[in-house]
Amino acid sequence: MPASTSLSSKHHTLIQALLSRGPLKESEFRSIFHKVTGKSPDHQVFNDYVSDINDELSYVQLELRKCLNQYDGKAYYGVVNTVSDEHSKLGTKYSVPQIALYKGILEAIVQDTAGEGSISNIDALNIRLENQVLSGVDSQSQDNSTEIPSALKNFSMSQKDKTLEEFVHDQWLCSISDGRIGLGVRSFLDLRSWFHDNEVPTCQVCNEAAVKAEFCQNENCNTRVHQSCLKKLFSLAGVKRVCPGCGTQWRLVAKREATEEQEADDQDGPSENTSQPDPSAGKRRRTSKGVDRNTQESDSTITSSTLSGSRRLTRSSARRAAAA
Fold first, then answer.
1. Strands 224-225 and 214-215, how do they pair?
2. CA pseudo-torsion sign 234, 202, 80, 116
């Protein structure tokens, strides 16, 4: 294996851009890449830079990761913490009640059998925080003797409302139309392993968690596809408008949703081709001292281990909930 090469100042500038600004749309990140490197952000050059960065970041258990924002269909890049142990729980600025509220909202959103990927603001405020304590206790041992931390019992409605604003600001949640709350870009970036471990149904096309997705009309088929993945799939030459799982004729995407996507495209300008393989997925792990451990932004991190007490969500449980 060739010797590791320390990152250049241009690599560090790209990392700092994401750490200081938070997750960025792919088009924005590629624009920064062009300004910093002076190179055209074509896929090969750009992917090489991302791969080199991840080779070095792996030493400090960070990763420059790409994800799909399932609400606007855009790809985003961000730096995430790949640690999933008890120590990572210390790397968060949020209090116990705040994390319990986030866990409750997260579970409510991914359990949505309609694939809307959101809950109402009122439902979010009425999440019962004590359920996050009881969910980690065996059902046979749940009785009146279970002690609920006072911090959860005394967490007021106004505190919940302020916390929701904080989560939206930090991009763990997002505010969407009609006063509803969805998952933010940082949730899609950081909680990939949580979605997998809890068997959240995945998109048939990209294999990422299908939190907001279209369903196959065949009641016996469990296929889900992100709206943006569906659009790309059916735009390919020779691809029939049928379910990629069972072959059933797929219903057309609602005109309103297509219009919203077009408006978003117009605002963002020409979109980048995001169908290329994610360079972070195949990164080589390499030992290096080329990255400062202090570059890690851990004061607002929510990791899979932070959510370890969450109820397990399986495909079968989702089907049973839908049937009920």
1. antiparallel
2. positive
Where do the H-state alpha helices sit in 85-226? 96-110, 121-125, 131-134, 150-153, 157-169, 185-190, 192-197
Token pair 């990392």: residue: 15
- Angle of helix 43-57 relative to helix 26-37, nearest 10 degrees, comes to 90
Cβ-based neighbour number of residue 263 at 10 Å: 10
Q: Concatenated DSSP letters for 120-159? A: EHHHHHT--TTHHHHTTS-GGG-STTPPPPHHHHT--HHH
Short-list 161, 182, 175, 190, CA closest to 64: 190
CA 268 to chain centre: 21
SS3 310: coil
Beta-carbon contacts of 267 under 8 Å, excluding residues fewer than 6 positions away, are none
Mean pLDDT by 10 residues, the chain (324 residues): 68 93 94 93 89 92 94 93 66 86 94 88 91 58 61 90 95 90 94 90 92 91 92 89 91 51 49 43 42 51 69 50 48
* Residue in the structure block whose two tokens are 């991302």: 50
Burial of 236 (0-12, 13-18, 19+ CB in 10 A): exposed
Backbone CA torsion sign across 141, 143, 147, 150: positive
pLDDT of the residue at 47? 93
CA gap 2, 4 in Å, rounded: 6
